[in-house]
């Protein structure tokens, strides 16, 4: 596939079937888009997002810090020579997404965005088609089924599993309950990656919130299309078992290699982040 070619796929007749966007139910990806100041959201998403902000303004500052972490981590990993990105649970790939940031460092990067939600696929494919550039594709897949992801023909057509890959699990694992074995899922995915691959991960935490704020946040997301499961620093650290953490290790999201001045409270931000290297 030539550099700059857009990986986009349609059904055999060239037309995608219509998708029910369920705009009447709050959706975490569109709520996140709203927190970031995007426009790919609907009244139900905006109402739920505003309720979240009434619980704590950290929902917005946390989302902005998380997006900034993603961009810093992608630049770092690309500068380290990684040219392939497997971005799972990507959400709506708006401006400053993985393929755009990585291409600033290396135009030949390849990015496979995976999400199980048709809403994200509709938005993502439209945005990528409108951009008309970059080696990126959006694939429907479910993080809860790592074996299917690893065997997916479209994923294998985009990414070479004999070369290092950056596995991006940014702000997604907190939408999986413990009963879905998120640690086991991450382990299975990283096992399939070659030496020199990276795990880029961020995760919501309630470590610095009051129990009431955590309970209210959980209740709010219980009425959306996915639950919210904040985890402690120790629980987030378990995702990196068997990997070598790059400096500065597992820290609150704004503290991971900041490229600007820190703000008061950054050490108590509502999320942890790190980048691990597979030996």
How confident overall, as mean pLDDT?
Answer: 87
Secondary structure class reads alpha/beta
Number of strands: 8
Order of helices and strands: HHHEHEHEHHEHEHHEEE
Radius of gyration, whole Å? 18 Å
Number of helices: 10
Strand content: 5-15%
Q: Can you identify the CATH superfamily?
A: Vaccinia Virus protein VP39
Distance between the termini: 30 Å
What spatial form do the alpha-carbon principal axes imply?
A: globular
Q: CATH topology, anyone?
A: Rossmann fold
CATH architecture: 3-Layer(aba) Sandwich
Number of spatially distinct domains: 1
Largest sheet: 8 strands, mixed
Task: Give the low-pLDDT segments.
Answer: 1-18
Reading off the top of the CATH hierarchy, the class is best stated as: Alpha Beta
- The helical percent reads 25-40%
Strand and helix map with partners:
Elements: H1 28-35, H2 43-55, H3 58-79, E1 84-88, H4 98-105, E2 110-115, H5 118-131, E3 136-140, H6 146-151, H7 153-158, E4 166-170, H8 182-191, E5 198-204, H9 211-222, H10 233-237, E6 244-245, E7 251-252, E8 271-277
Parallel strand pairs: 1-2, 1-4, 2-3, 4-5
Antiparallel strand pairs: 5-8, 6-8, 7-8
């Amino acid at each position: 596939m030539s550099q700059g070619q857009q990986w986009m796929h349609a059904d055999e007749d060239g037309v995608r079937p219509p998708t029910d966007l369920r705009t009447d139910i709050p959706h975490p990806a569109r709520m996140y888009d709203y927190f970031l100041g995007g426009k790919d959201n609907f009244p139900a998403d905006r109402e739920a997002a505003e309720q979240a902000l009434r619980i704590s303004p950290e929902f917005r500052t946390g989302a902005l810090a998380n997006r900034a972490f993603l961009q810093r981590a992608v630049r770092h990993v690309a500068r380290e020579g990684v040219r392939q990105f497997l971005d799972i649970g990507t959400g709506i790939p708006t401006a400053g997404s993985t393929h755009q940031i990585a291409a600033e460092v290396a135009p030949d990067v390849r990015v496979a965005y995976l999400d199980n939600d048709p809403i994200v696929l509709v938005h993502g494919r439209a945005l990528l088609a409108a951009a008309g550039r970059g080696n990126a594709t959006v694939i429907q897949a479910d993080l809860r089924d790592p074996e299917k992801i690893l065997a997916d023909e479209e994923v294998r057509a985009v990414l070479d599993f004999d070369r290092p890959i950056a596995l991006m699990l940014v702000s997604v694992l907190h939408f999986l309950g413990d009963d879905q074995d998120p640690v086991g899922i991450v382990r299975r995915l990283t096992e399939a990656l070659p030496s020199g691959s990276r795990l880029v991960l961020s995760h919501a935490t309630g470590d610095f919130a009051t129990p009431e704020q955590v309970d209210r946040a959980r209740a709010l997301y219980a009425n959306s299309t996915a639950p919210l499961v904040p985890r402690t620093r120790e629980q987030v650290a378990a995702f990196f078992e068997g990997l070598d953490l790059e400096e500065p290790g597992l820290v609150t999201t704004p503290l991971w290699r900041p490229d600007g001045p820190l703000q008061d409270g950054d050490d108590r931000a509502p999320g942890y982040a790190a980048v691990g290297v597979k030996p």
